[in-house]
Amino acid sequence: MRISGKDLSSRLKEEMAVKVAGLKEKYGREPHLAVILVGEDPGSVSYVTGKAKASEVVGIKNTTIRRSVDISEGELLDLIGTLNRDDSIDGILVQLPLPSHIDENKVIETISKEKDVDGFHPLNVAALWQKRPCTVACTPKGIIKLLREAGEDIAGKRAVVVGRSNIVGLPVAKLLLDANATVTIAHSKTVDLGSVTRQADILVVAVGRPHTITADMVKPGAVVIDVGVNRNPDTGKLCGDVDTEAVEAVARCITPVPGGVGPMTITCLMENTIEAFERKMQL
Ligand code: GUN
Question: How far is CA 138 from CA 112, 119, 133, 208, 244, in A?
Fold first, then answer.
């Protein structure tokens, strides 16, 4: 069975639209998200367009700010500073990756913690690992919602996360641990990956390489979350890290690519923006 992130996203966005209408009534304006896009990478353009479309559906004001690929680091940091000080803006997102002459860590640290709707700021990351209130990164948050949608009771399960990035692998492992799963993090140096993944009741794969998980690597009845976004070199089509069709025959549930985790990331960005707005208004 496939778990549709697209369908779950649509439902959640409908609920958020109702909520945002109420917030606008109560506070006199809607939440406002500023998205900065540097350069013209087609993948980044498509993500940013998706964020603008979702904002429209939910009723969030979206200002997308485009800058040329040769913007200096200083100019970008100054722009973020201006947005930090702008009281009419609740959330700031700088689309990654950035050109190599710009230090991504500096950019992430410059966005104020309160407006960091990506949940990438070191203070938000630290708060997550210390189980304190924080903004949770959008993809990991979306994955937990997909697991709940699949009817998966996470507590007590064996979860294996393949990949240890700051954006997905590490935070999703922490969220699974907090939901009382027993968590293993596998990575590119893991020896005999299949022997590890076959233990998983919940398998999350986020490495960015097609065919990382084949059907023989999956425990029968497992729930498989495919975070990969790759281009199939033969067909040019979007594909994940998991052999979807073959694994579907073994797993209880699997998320497709496209239409699985991707839409949930954007939906959780909307949720994080609404939460940032409410926190600000309740101060
Ligand atoms: N690039 C790919 N995914 C993301 C994301 O979730 N946030 C940002 N800012 N950039 C990304």
Answer: 17, 7, 15, 17, 23
